[in-house]
Amino acid sequence: MSRRATLITAAAVTVAGLIAGLTYWLTQPSYDDIVKGCQTALTEQTAHHGKGRPDACKDVHDDDYNALVLHSVMDDLGWTDKDGRFSEDKMLDSVTDQP
């Protein structure tokens, strides 16, 4: 094989590898997609009274997972407003209600 053919083959293999790597990287879900999937799984788990960390949350960082769990609990208790933000008034109303 001549030197020119070797260089062309090496360049073609390199370009094919770069295209394959880029395609693989672009098809992976983003961290935001993973977190949204985790939030959905936590909502479903809460509705079914499940326990533990769902499989959809295995790639979520611990701090983010803890925040998602806390938000899910506050939402389940009715302490969030229509926009999903914590409402101190709703929390105080639920705590001070007479049984």
Strand content: under 5%
Gyration radius over CA = 24 Å
Q: Level of helix content?
A: 55-70%
How much is the average pLDDT?
87
Largest sheet: none
Question: Which stretches are low in confidence, meaning pLDDT under 50 for 5 or more residues running?
Answer: none
Structural class: mainly alpha
What is the terminal separation in angstroms?
88 Å
Q: Number of DSSP helices?
A: 4
User: What kind of oligomer do you see?
Assistant: single chain
Shape: rod-shaped
List the helices and strands in order: HHHH
Question: Count the strands?
Answer: 0
Describe what you observe in this structure:
This protein has 99 residues and is mainly alpha-helical. It has a domain of 67 residues. The protein is 67% helix and 0% strand. It is built from 4 helices and no strands. α2 runs parallel beside α3. The longest helix is centred in the first third of the chain and has 25 residues. The radius of gyration is 24 Å and the shape is rod-shaped. The mean pLDDT is 87.
Based on the model shown, name its key terms.
99 residues, rod-shaped, 4 helices, 67% helix, mainly alpha
Walk me through the topology.
Elements: H1 3-27, H2 31-47, H3 62-76, H4 88-96
Helix pairs in contact: 2-3
Question: Could you give a short description of this structure?
Answer:
By secondary structure, this protein is mostly helical.
